[in-house]
Amino acid sequence: VERRPPTVFRYLDLEKAESSAIRARLFVGAVCTDWQLDALRDDAVIVSSELVANAVLHARTECRLTVQLDARGLTIAVHDHRPGWIKRRPSIDATNPRGLGLFVVDRLSRSWGTTPTAEGKKVWALLSNRSIR
């Protein structure tokens, strides 16, 4: 851990399929294990799953999941091919059978947002680096 470069980065390209959220969870869990981020693993897995599920459900495009670790913390981002913005104040819909989505992302991350890209948008979340050495 002490010899880790200042920034490490990995990505996974995902299809427009319900199984992509499962692949995201497995990928991010493995990344956290490789980077010795045991304290962040559960939150990172949940956040990545919610972001990918939203891209598949709402953007209806394939997406790229990126995970980056630097001095600020662990950033999880999903790049899709549909332009637009995400509502900044998510609320809980108790009748929604699909989950809590961005409400969970908002609660588990230090900050999150949407950035437009040439091909669509990137929805990202920064998890705290309190437990990263």
Per DSSP E runs of 2 or more residues, the count of β-strands stands at 5
Physical arrangement of strands within the biggest beta sheet: 1-2-3-5-4
Termini Cα gap: 7 Å
Please bin the fraction of helical residues: 25-40%
Q: What is the SS-derived class?
A: alpha+beta
Oligomer kind: single chain
Anisotropy-based shape: globular
Enumerate how many helices there are, as a single number.
Answer: 3
Largest sheet: 5 strands, antiparallel
- The portion of residues forming beta strands comes to 25-35%
Give helix and strand order, one letter per element, not per position.
EHHEEHEE
State mean pLDDT (0 to 100 scale).
84
If you compute it from the alpha carbons, what radius of gyration comes out, rounded to the nearest whole angstrom?
14 Å
Spans of at least 5 consecutive residues whose pLDDT stays below 50 are: none
